[in-house]
UniProtKB/TrEMBL annotation, chains A, B:
Residues 193-340 form the Glycerol-3-phosphate dehydrogenase NAD-dependent C-terminal domain. It is an enzyme of class 1 (oxidoreductase). GO terms for cellular component: cytosol. InterPro entries: 6-PGluconate_DH-like_C_sf (IPR008927), 6PGD_dom2 (IPR013328), G3P_DH_NAD-dep (IPR006168), G3P_DH_NAD-dep_C (IPR006109), G3P_DH_NAD-dep_euk (IPR017751), G3P_DH_NAD-dep_N (IPR011128), NAD(P)-bd_dom_sf (IPR036291). Signal peptide: none annotated. Keywords: NAD, Oxidoreductase. Belongs to the NAD-dependent glycerol-3-phosphate dehydrogenase family. NAD(+) binds at residues 8-13, 96, 152, 268, 297, 299. It comes from the Eukaryota. Its EC number is 1.1.1.8. Pfam families: NAD_Gly3P_dh_C, NAD_Gly3P_dh_N. This is Glycerol-3-phosphate dehydrogenase [NAD(+)]. The lineage of its organism: Eukaryota, Viridiplantae, Streptophyta, Embryophyta, Tracheophyta.
Length: 354, 354
């Protein structure tokens, strides 16, 4: 029998609990109970968040109004939450992942398997640090990822959407994750390309900044579609340079083109970039970010900077004109209009390769 | 020296004339003059359309307010227009192509090359009839295609966009077309996949109907992105079944993902499908079409029907659940909401192959 624990209970973690709980109750090879580790908080009412979740079956703070399923058990004790689980779903904010992993070393089952739902890994100068690799290395377990066009609130409302499981080698493990997440309104497929799936989840945010600039410049759908397409090709080319095993076909999965579309139509990266262009670049991203996002950091601008560092170090800058332009515009070196001018100086033989 | 004639002078044909004329004037291997065949009309003022174009340098009827270039010569005589040309750009409405070709048999230069900008070929039961094949067969010339995210009015305003030349074998001929169309704001690349490029241009309209239904059902971006992604995969799979030479990579070109995005964000197929869903399917596509499009036919609904016939004949229906759903919804057999339910009855092993 498989035991599932969700490490995290934010907005996306709570939706994951709802999806999984609707499946464990019907699938014979899974225990019904889904344990969800809750980073304990005291609510304004004085009650503990985990107690309220267990009483009401609802994460009143991060997913109010949605029943998680009676078989979801909130547990504020991380060690207790994971001790019986052989299936660990990681869905904490990105910056907490390293600390959580450290606490879990030696505390989990030897036969455990992990899956990461954490988007926004860091791209450092020496290369990107994949969250799935961090988990694998620190805990000595196999770790897959689940990414896709997944706006949590839409899935909570049971609107049709999709996701992609990326796995390294173990197809059977991947199929178990698919079984655990898949519902009639949440269609999950698996691909053997953990790096491709995870890179898509990060790099799309750079393209979303570019798309937002186009919106702010009041350009048409032709131009926006062109920029998204160029972005998709740069995402693929950059991922393949870093990880030669990345497959072209991964881009046709939910984690690729679909997540890119969602992110470029909505999403905060697009929105702040639109405001930046509307202001003619006169107000910095930092300033707009603070005003519009209230403390949240803009992933796309950060990733553009990190990717640019990697490109400079490796001599790849001229191969990625769109990524370069997003970096130079968001850093204030070029005006927002440069987003449609980056193309002019590229020799045709390079452009054809993009 | 190369001589260019544009066979057609509508909205897109006039933009093509503008693009080409800006290049022939600068390129040594091309004569400056670009001849444009005009299907003669008498304007309300009593003047002939071709005379007005030649006097004002503007297609006052189909692209008012945009100068075409002084080296564009409107010619109402088809035979005279083509007689010196070795480069023929076909851009008439789809339904006139067969008649135009018949008139041109034996009247063009033996060394002529063609390129078709005509979207919306017919998919008949015995397979799709590609416009480029029609031209090739009837005139005995090599024929490439140019497709992409090309809303004519945006290109006329010189907003950045892209296009794809699809060619059969002759790379040098394709590169000449690229040279002829490419400008700083209109970025053209070539791929050796004439069928892939042309199929994308047709099948995208089915997906646009699906996207419009999602909009009319007031569903979120997750769902729309998922539907567009599934549509893209069905476009690829269907094209490859009909033409095994079609390349996956063609979908990453402007004619593929970018044209799909433009068409699903704007465009009349999306718009009428949205109205259809908003009315709960109670007013037929025919009725909405008549009211909203004033005589223009809705390509997506027609193509869905034709593609469905091909699928039935060849036993492919269950492999294309989205195409099937669009056909069944637009024919009134299923309600608009079926567009997000088509997925439920597909065995997982088939879904994974899509």
């Amino acid at each position: 029998m498989n035991n599932v624990t969700i490490v995290g209970s934010g907005n996306w973690g709570s939706v994951a609990a709802k999806l999984i709980a609707s499946n464990t109750i019907n699938l014979r090879s899974f225990n019904d109970e889904v344990r969800m580790w809750v980073y304990e908080e005291t609510l304004p009412s004085g009650e503990k968040l985990s107690d309220v979740i267990n009483q009401t079956n609802e994460n009143v703070k991060y997913l109010p109004g949605v029943k998680l399923g009676k078989n979801v058990v909130a547990d504020p004790d991380l060690m207790n939450a994971v001790k019986n689980a052989n299936l660990l779903v990681f869905v904490t904010p990105h910056q907490f992942m390293e600390g959580v992993c450290k606490r879990l070393v030696g505390k989990i089952r030897k036969d455990a398997e992990g899956i990461s739902l954490v988007k926004g890994m860091e791209v450092k100068r020496e290369g990107p640090s994949l969250i799935s690799t961090l988990i694998s290395n620190q805990l000595g377990i196999n770790c897959s990822v689940l990414m896709g066009a997944n706006i949590a609130d839409e899935i909570a409302k049971e609107e049709f959407s999709e996701a992609t499981v990326g796995y390294r080698r173990d197809k059977a493990a991947a199929e178990r994750w698919v079984q655990l997440f898949n519902t009639p309104y949440f269609s999950v497929t698996s691909v053997q390309d953990v790096e491709g799936v995870e890179m898509c989840g990060t790099l799309k945010n750079i393209v979303a900044v570019a798309a937002g600039l186009i919106d702010g410049l009041k350009m048409g759908n032709n131009t926006k579609a062109a920029i998204m397409r160029i972005g998709l090709k740069e995402m693929l080319a950059f991922s393949k340079l870093l990880f030669p095993s990345v497959k072209d076909s991964t881009l046709f999965e939910s984690c690729g083109v679909a997540d890119l579309i969602t992110t470029c139509l909505g999403g905060r990266n697009r929105k702040v970039a639109e405001a930046f262009a509307l202001n003619g670049g006169k107000r910095s991203f930092d300033e707009l970010e603070e005003q519009m996002l209230k403390g949240q950091k803009l992933q796309g601008v950060l990733t553009a900077k990190e990717v640019h560092e990697v490109m400079v170090t490796r001599g790849w800058v001229d191969m990625f004109p769109l990524f370069k332009a997003v970096y130079e515009i968001s850093s204030g070196f070029l005006p927002p209009t440069a987003i449609v001018e980056f193309n002019n100086n590229i020799p045709h033989h390079i452009k054809n390769k993009l």
